[in-house]
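Can't attach files on this board, so I'm pasting raw text. These are the components:
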Amino acid sequence: HIIWICDLKTCRPNNADLVLPSRAPRKHVLPFIEGMNGVPHRGKVLTVDNMNPNVKRVEYAVRGPIVQRAVQIEKELKEGVKKPFTEVIKANIGDAHAMGQKPITFLRQVLALCSYPELLNDNKFPEDAKNRAQRILQACGGHSIGAYSASQGIECIRQDVSRYIEKRDGGIPSNPDNIFLSAGASDAITTMLKLQVSGEGRNRTGVMIPIPQYPLYSAALADLGGIQINYYLDEDRCWALDVTELRRAVTAARQHCNPRVLCIINPGNPTGQVQSRQCIEDVIRFAKEEHLFLMADEVYQDNVYAEGCKFHSFKKVLFEMGPEYSSTVEMASFHSTSKCYMGECGFRGGYMEVINLDPEVKAQLIKLVSVRLCPPVTGQALLDLVVNPPQPDEPSYTTFIKERTAVLAALAEKARLTEEVFNTVPGIRCNPVQGAMYTFPCITLPQKAISQAKEKGLAPDMFYCMKLLEEMGICLVPGSGFGQREGTHHFRMTILPPTEKLKIMLDKIREFHQKFTQEFS
Amino acid sequence: HIIWICDLKTCRPNNADLVLPSRAPRKHVLPFIEGMNGVPHRGKVLTVDNMNPNVKRVEYAVRGPIVQRAVQIEKELKEGVKKPFTEVIKANIGDAHAMGQKPITFLRQVLALCSYPELLNDNKFPEDAKNRAQRILQACGGHSIGAYSASQGIECIRQDVSRYIEKRDGGIPSNPDNIFLSAGASDAITTMLKLQVSGEGRNRTGVMIPIPQYPLYSAALADLGGIQINYYLDEDRCWALDVTELRRAVTAARQHCNPRVLCIINPGNPTGQVQSRQCIEDVIRFAKEEHLFLMADEVYQDNVYAEGCKFHSFKKVLFEMGPEYSSTVEMASFHSTSKCYMGECGFRGGYMEVINLDPEVKAQLIKLVSVRLCPPVTGQALLDLVVNPPQPDEPSYTTFIKERTAVLAALAEKARLTEEVFNTVPGIRCNPVQGAMYTFPCITLPQKAISQAKEKGLAPDMFYCMKLLEEMGICLVPGSGFGQREGTHHFRMTILPPTEKLKIMLDKIREFHQKFTQEFS
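---
Top answer:
Structure tokens for the assembled complex are below.
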């Protein structure tokens, strides 16, 4: 027998004994096939029809279909397939080193010393690098970074993190017992969300997230079966967060779930805004009034470029609002070694500080993280260097400052350039990139393009980005992967490519946008 | 007002206006307190009463209360508190470097080169180490281990893993597309379990795990809300796995859930047995008959010591059973850089190979792992060296083989020693440590000790281990943390301490056991 299992819209089987539409559930298809060959065929144990339904709901656009296609195109280029471009520029993910940013010498020297302590006898390494390495090794089991650490993270590194936070926040105390080291910020954010999600039906935990958001949040909530509550950032006011909108969102959500968590991303991802001190105060007051747990994603705290903008940590503002707030509002703040001037994504380093967490819940959190044994120790070591960098009287100081300043100055320049160029293109409107590493411009798409996208079952901005990739070799992420107001369209682009390449990319996008607009007008 | 919230059994408040038992749910206690001071007090947003109930059910004995007490005792010793011992020996966790095992030179040289590529110009490093480092860096974004890798892991490392598996299994093909690199084996095991768990009530996924088990399994199932199905290993036959027992367990479980997964740990943790080829065949046949997905935890595949014992991979046996099995039975096998001769736990390296996984499920798996971006890249690099070690014609070969052999020979000697000493102690009965890194002896406890433990609300072997810790400074994990037949008692001890220390530890346990038996007889 010849059996075709296919999409009946696009495929016209002409030699089949039996045709089954591919959208039919397997449980209907399989008995059919079994019946035909007479052999009892039970099919797979694990199928998309019977697997964890929460996992199916997970989506993560930053590494979604468009990136998979980009990888494929790269392979085709290597194999000699002719394209209208010679390389794919990937501006889909905040991956600084992949875009050519060089690692900071001091960080890598210490990591090499920790990996192969024989090098401590090598006089090529500066003394401060050796001291840092020795201090880290002293704190490791058997003086090896190959030993498991405590599940919460190496104690002396947690102490260094606390000191760093105290300094950052002008002396407001930080307790190392409240610091949890993690495998990047994603790990800690997921863990904190996991603690929160409970209840059934109208009692199910609701989590407020910004729209546009970084899709880790929606993905983790889908996985955990938590209820996502959208609050919209105000694009017309440079993606400002408005408490009126928070109130609208929480009030509406109370009809169908139990809102319990408020997530903030500042500086914003994908939106690049930096929140004002006033805004943060308003948010904290709102969280207290509405009895919400605050989760402050502050991984871009050192990526602030715009004049007049300054990073204010939620913790500092909370404590400056007085004991009425600082002793009651529950909060977790997240940081990472993957961004800022380091861009060390591959090491998976990060930390979370918890404030006012119920001690019994904290005990549960410690128990939960212990199951996975410990965060990667090299990532912990790297974090230690970030929170305890070379001091003015140490030999590595000058080079360190020079390298750090160069990275941050280049990012600031690229932030400015990106805004400037995009705002000269009719049909692209772009807020200033005040901080973080992304721009999220609004693009005007012709109605004909929107209709054609819908025919293909694609979001209009996915249709746009796919075409941009195929024609120009530029890989961006469509706004629909982050969420946006109904009827608007965006893309997220990182500002990470080297300036010369960024300029080429911006020109190409301009050219493409004009062509696209003409083609569909 | 003076309010006491306390355990009424152990505490006698004499000056309270109000006494509330500490076991009372907070929702009952809080309104009471609020009523008294007249201030509306809403309490914490996140409490143990309203948090994720699955997380509360998670238990992980390997880092449980006994280890927390051990850490406390270490601090007390440092502060000068007098104890009947001068140091705590921690034999609770398979953490080789913490127990003094030295890292393998070649591995660490390559990691240092990857961390700080300037060292490639240094003629102190052997050529093969440099070549490995260059090859890894070539495969990284921007030639930096600080870039994110593909979520499934760096492609050339997955190819190396496949070649390693093919060689291990006598040429049976392995496809790099079926390899997923992970943050240790725990990460991949949890992910695979997450894919599996679905359904409600009697349709809820059931997962068969050995008893005794490594508590990652019970912890992950509690977290995911999957149904744990216990099958018991046969202690009298050196912890053999008996298909009759598997059948009993699956049949009983079908009354209340949907058994879909069978987990095997070979070599065994905590039990140290190595399964025969015949046993593995029987298990595979059983899995096919009962339509179960096999999860083979093979992280101790290079830790086999006993004469006549040999590691047989589930994959090899599956393929040798012919296409009826090799083309149908779905399987995942797990490996790690944390054990064997490396013991590099802190790097969180590992991989999973999937066999016969439904392509659509595999697409879901790729999507799921992409949310967490990538496994730690240093762990991936380390794994690459493990699967692609120095070859006989390379300069590092001799040292590498010498170091590896020394580690494995010492482990074999300690495995033998442990069994020998324990079996001379009346009341301790110990199977041979055929493989892995643990012994799980059965201990006879006097009835009086059992009663006293129960009075304190402790499992009898927890009572025993706590006393051993307090009196001797030895930290083991009670058998109750792994599961055991009702009425039997055990502990898990690693064989990792250096031989001289291990001898002292075994003597101390002998002494303690005799004293304990006398005290409670």
